[in-house]
Design brief:
The structure holds two protein chains of two kinds. Chain A contains six helices and 14 strands. By secondary structure, chain A is of the alpha/beta class. In chain A, helix 1 crosses helix 6. By secondary structure, chain B is of the alpha/beta class. In chain B, helix 8 packs across helix 10. The chains are: A alpha/beta, B alpha/beta. At the A-B interface, helix 1, strand 8, strand 10 and helix 6 of A face helix 2 and helix 3 of B.
């Protein structure tokens, strides 16, 4: 089995690759490679889309050249391969993002990416640090994970899903912040599983074992 | 609920921890990667490396330390020291840092913060502010390890770098650093109230009550300490339990 981490110049993927490869080794899930080659993405058994930075810039990199979006669409939508978006890679799943300027996303999970606006003005944005997950719906990604487990977040925008059935987990920050979204073979995590110690590594292992 | 973070900071010179780290079963008290791994296992919420002799010539050593740490520690890592340009930020991010900290370069040219934030996102740009009390309720930025006054008001500067896109401020009270007398709380509170971004309190921690005060009185989102952890005075777990007992939300599971 081969899992690819899509490289579209959105930042360092070395530590993400190490975390995924470590869990793949522990669970016998094959190899994890970083690639920016559309054909390699198209042929992958599982796809991870990371991402840091601003929504419009990330979208531009994925759509403007190289055919990376088309490759992911073929693998994920047409061939139903398991997909995991992380941070901005998760936000890309939405219908559109509102960071800087309204920008269309993949529209794989209907919703909008909006600025975090905590009801308590003393709370800081970005939402940065460890917050405890509230599991909204059972899912294979939560094997060994319970409500109250912590994950590491760093973001100023978050996805508001149009269909509550797509919200798998949230955290509280003077109001709900979307933590995990999913439908069918598609998952997205706002937090960084590769920076979330035991909890994150367990969810990475769960993703690698997931048979949607 | 978001938890308050405890961040052990390691001063690194030429790839070695300055003064060493004396706790648990470190094979090599001077190896930053070993120390980072021990802090990761001990439940630290993030790690910070400060390259205190950063020069172009010895940069490669720090990149190697960052790379090996990022391969083995699954918590966020901030790296600072000698960061001057967006190219420096990029090189450290590619080595495996999650956040990169500007210090004197941001004082000399605050626009470098905007350039780096535009290029890499605010989430990975930290500005380290070293400030001293110059009169009651007045704090000034000092550079060069606290030796060089700049005439710049610390609160104004914090607002400025936040508006330029900094994602976080690492605030060190230079008149407290190394004293073990506790954070400069009025300074911490003034900066924390002045900006919407998280503030990490640093400088002067001597006991666990100081950590509590940094949050309850200083308004900090995170607390950074070095010697109380490195010398084994307290474990990360003791610090977390003490802060939790004082009513501060902490991450106690691992």
């Amino acid at each position: 089995m081969r899992t690819v981490i899509v490289d579209y110049e959105s930042g360092n993927l070395h530590s993400a690759q190490k975390a995924f490869q470590r869990m793949a080794d522990e669970t016998g899930a094959g190899e994890v490679i970083v690639t920016s080659d559309p054909d390699t993405v198209r042929a992958a058994d599982r796809i991870v889309l990371p991402g840091d930075g601003a929504f419009p810039a990330c979208r531009k990199e994925l759509f403007d050249h190289r055919g990376l979006f088309e490759a992911m669409e073929e693998a994920v939508i047409h061939h139903a391969r398991p997909f995991l978006g992380i941070c901005i890679g998760m936000q890309m799943l939405a219908t559109r993002g509102l960071e800087y300027t309204p920008t269309p996303g993949f529209d794989w999970i209907p919703g909008e990416v909006v600025r975090i606006d905590p009801a308590d003005p003393a709370l800081k944005v970005p939402h940065m640090g460890w917050n405890d997950l509230v599991i909204d719906q059972p899912h294979a990604i939560f094997d060994g994970i319970k409500t109250g487990d912590h994950a590491y977040f760093v973001h100023s925008y978050h996805m508001r899903v149009a269909n509550p059935a797509h919200l798998l987990a949230h955290v509280d920050y003077a109001g709900p912040i979307t933590a995990i979204v999913g439908r069918d073979n598609i998952l997205g995590m706002q937090f960084h599983p590769e920076k979330s110690q035991r909890v994150g590594l367990r969810m990475i292992a769960n993703f690698l074992a997931w048979r949607p | 609920m978001l938890k308050v973070r405890i961040i052990p900071c390691l001063d690194v010179a030429d790839g070695r921890v300055v003064k060493g780290v004396n706790f648990v079963d470190l094979r090599d008290a001077g190896d930053p990667v070993d120390a980072a791994r021990a802090y990761d296992a001990a439940g630290a919420d993030e790690l910070c490396f400060l390259d205190i002799h950063a020069t172009h010539e010895n940069r490669g050593t720090m990149f190697d330390v960052v790379r090996r740490t990022a391969e083995q520690c699954y918590i966020p890592l901030t790296v600072g020291g000698g960061v001057r340009t967006p190219a420096d930020v990029r090189a450290l991010l590619l080595a495996g840092a999650d956040k990169v900290s500007f210090n004197s370069a941001a004082v000399a040219n605050p626009d470098v913060v905007a350039q780096a934030a535009d290029q890499f996102g605010s989430q990975c740009i930290v500005v380290a502010i070293d400030a001293k009390t110059v009169s009651p309720g007045k704090w000034e930025i000092f550079t060069h390890g606290g030796r060089k006054p700049t005439g710049i008001d610390a609160v104004e500067f914090a607002r400025l770098v936040a508006s330029k896109g900094a994602g976080e401020i690492l605030l060190t009270s230079m008149d407290r650093d190394g004293t073990r007398a506790g954070f400069n709380l009025p300074l911490t509170r003034a900066i924390s109230d002045a900006v919407d971004i998280p503030v990490i309190a640093s400088g002067g921690v001597g006991n666990l009550d100081h950590l509590v005060e940094g949050v309850t009185l200083g308004g900090a989102s995170a607390v950074l300490a070095a010697s109380i952890f490195h010398f084994g005075d307290y474990t990360i777990r003791q610090a977390k339990d003490h802060m939790a007992a004082a009513g501060i939300p902490m991450r106690l599971d691992q």
